[in-house]
Design brief:
The chain has a domain at about 1-145 and about 175-200: 3-Layer(aba) Sandwich (Rossmann fold). About 40% of the residues lie in helices and about 15% in strands. It has helices at about 10-20, 85-100, 120-135, 155-160, 180-190, 205-220, 230-240, 245-255, 270-280; strands at about 1-5, 25-30, 45-50, 65-70, 105-110, 140-145, 165, 175, 195-200, 205, 225. The strands form 3 sheets. The chain has a 7-stranded parallel β-sheet, sandwiched between helices. The protein is globular. Bound molecules: NADP nicotinamide-adenine-dinucleotide phosphate. NADP nicotinamide-adenine-dinucleotide phosphate binds near residues 12, 36, 111, 145 and 151.
Length: about 280
């Protein structure tokens, strides 16, 4: 198939590009900055440069494509835009362009369904795009993955620095998933009928267990400081008051994930401990 990957420069997008090429597909990467394709440039056949919030700049990006896989989203970076600009509107722009070009399938990377998360701005923006996709008339699959391993690299960095900070008593649970496992599901979805695929990693871990795994990988003695959850609850309330949506909308998501159980069906095969063995220090 000829597949356009939007978000190709991101953690998941790079896995998707690699998975597509390994399975023999033609890959067009939609990027804002081709330099950021770095490690997967060899797996990309064509590059289309555009900011997906700019509808005009996207004109023609899906021409000649059989399918689009989008992992475009705002992840952990507070900038000028909100999730409504990117997770919702930029993906809607891509969907319009896909429809205009007569693309046969649209695969969208949304986020895990969990009661604690549904009212957060990022999740509401994603659910709003999911609704557009369902009503678009295009064949589609919505991926609903739990937190990616990349999000837990912060624990490894803290462990390398000698201390991990956890919220509550460390007993909140999650089954994070490797980007490679989500990418495999995204490529499987190209010719599968399922409209929704929930995705979690193979192991349900407490945050304390993840921190200890990080210490083992770092080779440092376990030193954990527990921060009471009320600090986060109070901090979030304050943040929502004193910062604009483009700031608190980005921060409220990870803080909520870290202070609740977030569980998904165990689909992934890769283990976090093995991922940690491969993460190089950032400084
Ligand atoms: N991280 C997680 O734990 C997690 C869990 C569940 C679901 N998800 C969802 O999975 C998706 C991918 O996550 P990720 O961790 O791979 O994020 P990521 O590494 O930050 O990648 C996001 C991608 O979106 C692109 N992008 C952002 N704004 C754009 C715009 N205006 N125009 C064009 N491209 C734009 C980024 O391009 P640049 O390189 O130019 O910035 C990047 O390629 C997101 O939708 C995220 O919400 C993430």
């Amino acid at each position: 198939m000829r597949v356009m990957v939007a978000g190709a420069t991101g953690y998941l997008g790079r896995h998707i590009v690699r998975e597509l090429k390994d399975r023999g597909h033609f890959v067009r990467a939609l990027v804002r900055d081709a330099v950021r394709l770095e490690t997967v440039r060899d797996a990309v056949d064509e590059v289309f440069t555009a900011d997906a919030t700019d509808q005009k700049a996207l004109a023609g990006c899906c021409d000649g494509m059989d399918a689009v896989i989008s992992s475009v989203g705002l992840v952990g970076k507070a900038g000028k835009k909100t999730a409504w600009d990117v997770d919702y509107a930029a993906n809607r722009n891509l969907l319009e362009e896909a429809g205009r070009a007569g693309v046969g399938k649209f695969v969208y990377t949304s986020v895990v369904r969990a009661p604690a998360l549904e009212n957060l701005q990022l999740v509401r923006a994603k659910r709003a795009f999911e609704a557009e996709l369902r009503g678009s008339g295009l064949a589609y699959t919505i991926l609903l993955p739990n937190g990616y391993f990349s999000d837990f690299d912060a624990y490894l960095e803290m462990a390398r620095d000698g201390r991990v900070y956890l919220f509550g008593d460390g007993s909140f649970r999650i089954n994070p998933i490797d980007g490679a496992d989500v990418a495999a599901a995204a490529v499987d979805a190209l010719d599968a009928a399922a409209h929704e695929v929930e995705l979690g990693g193979p192991e349900i871990l407490t945050h304390e267990e993840i921190a200890n795994e990080a210490f083992r990988a770092a080779g440092t003695p376990p030193r954990i400081r527990h921060i009471p959850t009320w600090v986060i609850t109070a901090g979030l309330t304050l943040l929502r008051w004193v910062t604009p949506l483009r700031v608190h909308g980005v921060i409220e998501f990870p803080l909520t994930v870290l202070t609740h159980d977030v569980l998904s069906p165990a689909v992934g095969r890769h283990r976090l401990a093995d991922h940690y063995k491969e993460v190089r220090p950032t400084r």
